[in-house]
């Protein structure tokens, strides 16, 4: 019994703490249970087709409460049936089949724009249609795939539902754990700034901006799943601990994203060096602690707060007492910020009884209203649908005209390579080509090693598990294993068929990837330099709204801070869009990387400004002390933020407000104010005004260069 318990514990550590591994194992088990009996019975086509249905079902999983999953599974099975049935019915009428498939793709992709639930299902429906085209030639009858593919998805869905009813909160656990893990990565990277030189910080801050995207996306995902669960529960009380963890994660992120002073300025003072190293170690310990929270959420094990955190915090506090008061001001504020983070983690489970469940923002539009919003040629989703359907149409015509063996693989490649943006499509193209070539070579070698039926079944299922595991983390590796999966599956259906499809697979992959790239290159590529004025405008307006909500909170802390949290969220989402646009621009042709330097500078300055506003927000519970002309000063900053938001989009650039007098006024107040909370807050306000002024100056220089170019 001890040996068994020890092995079960090891198995739990291998899978339960790693959702990607658990998903891969669950999906592979459902495929194996379906495929193995039929392969043993000498009916490999039925087994492999059922396994393909389970694979498509796994890719179409929605992130819902079990009740929501039942509804989603019903829609999934029905749409899979319609898609595969239409392929079988119209197989003898190829041009009618092609036309129907192209038009249905547009509808499916647009329906996917209604939300994450529909996006996964509609993607799976298109995928099943292509699977049906690939298998129709070897199907015993035209209708079998319309039975087997939905049946495979249904079996996988039922297996998943059984597991979900045994642990209905697992999905929320996984999303929260992912959120704390992404925050841990952010904190680990930020610790490298303490201490740091000015020349090191550009690279670190660039990485931080990209890691911040992951944290904000995780927060969005958690909010969406919480809302999905909330819709299905009559009593929201069981959601309380999850909402409290979510609020904690938001609070920790706000403090982590805060910036109180330039780090090189703090590091350059010799007397600050030990304190800065202490901050670095404190951030590393906070990163470790948040990773422990992720583990606590996933496994239900007790959270053990790192003893070193409190010790380091006390040591920093003691050191700060011996530093000159003026020099110590930003350090004190930073320490207060980190100390509050460690306190939040230390008393993780000491939640106050009767704490109100916070409200979350929901999309109140009806499905019809959301669908109508997609019906515009300017909407990215509509453009993506038209590009993908055009790739399918050209691929289908070429496959039929050139009599390509397994020509549907051209469309399968286009489905996976085509993305909403040019940079994502370009990146996916190289990943697909590299993965397919490697997979073909590896598959050919493995088929010579795994010669028996049992060995090839193991190869097929092992490849499927590796594909699912790597799918969300490394697409190139995932493609290698899905290629070996396909090769082994075809070899099981017909001896040596796996080797015969190597060449068609390579040709179809090259053709499908090329089509996707050419189509997006010439049809709405969406070059990022054209989007920059709109993105800058949005970021400035959202920063302004966030700052106004913070000032409102300073005046009177509200019981329901939904408006504040929405303003903060939207400011971070706008910052994410700007960072993603800059990152995408780096993947575009050189001729389209216009104003690249300005784009990077504006992205960097906006992230710095948002970090400083976050620092002000992180200390809002302290209340703003009396500052001379406070209202007037903030009105000036808000006015410049508003002007910055309109600057690049305005046809005529007139005179803009000058923040130099404001900066001088704040500087004088800082000099004449005694050390304490008021001086700390004045420094934050000065940094916000200074960053705003720098953004306006950069926008003016950008406009001059735009006129020249």
Short summary:
The protein is mostly helical.
* Backbone CA Rg: 28 Å
Question: What profile does the largest beta sheet have?
Answer: none
Q: Helix/strand-derived class?
A: mainly alpha
Distance between the termini: 76 Å
Shape by Cα distribution:
globular
Based on DSSP secondary structure assignment, what is the total number of beta strands?
0
Overall pLDDT confidence: 85
- Can you write the helix and strand succession as a string? HHHHHHHHHHHHHHHHHHHHHHHHHHHH
Based on the coordinates given, report the CATH architecture of the largest domain: Up-down Bundle
Q: Mind telling me the CATH class of the largest domain? A: Mainly Alpha
Low-confidence stretches: none
CATH topology of the largest domain: Methane Monooxygenase Hydroxylase, Chain G, domain 1
Q: How much strand?
A: under 5%
Helical coverage, percent range? over 70%
* Total discrete domains: 4
